[in-house]
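Target chain:
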Amino acid sequence: QVQLVESGGGLVQPGGSLRLSCAASGTIFSIDVVRWYRQAPGKKREFVAAISNGGSPGYADSIKGRFTISRDNAKNTVWLQMNSLKPDDTAVYYCHAILKQHNNRPFTSYWGQGTQVTVSS
């Protein structure tokens, strides 16, 4: 089985920073694209950032210039560095990965359990 575990969330003041981690464990052959999403209370889940297997990033306009996504394929880990945080960034942040458990198996979608980020003074 595969697990995605997010960590690094917490309470931070406006203007502060947090670094979220998404670690994949289990039987993994390769991980393709990994995305971060977030969901605020009463709102739909929204895309935040993505990174390809080769390290090419993509960002939502709302966080561009403030968040940076990165990955270490050897560690099966993706990070989301969040700077200049605003109260509107408050949400549960979810990691989503497309990966193969074996070379002869298709790519499958996995979600983490989420980590809470609260930006408040």
The first strand starts at residue 2 and ends at 7.
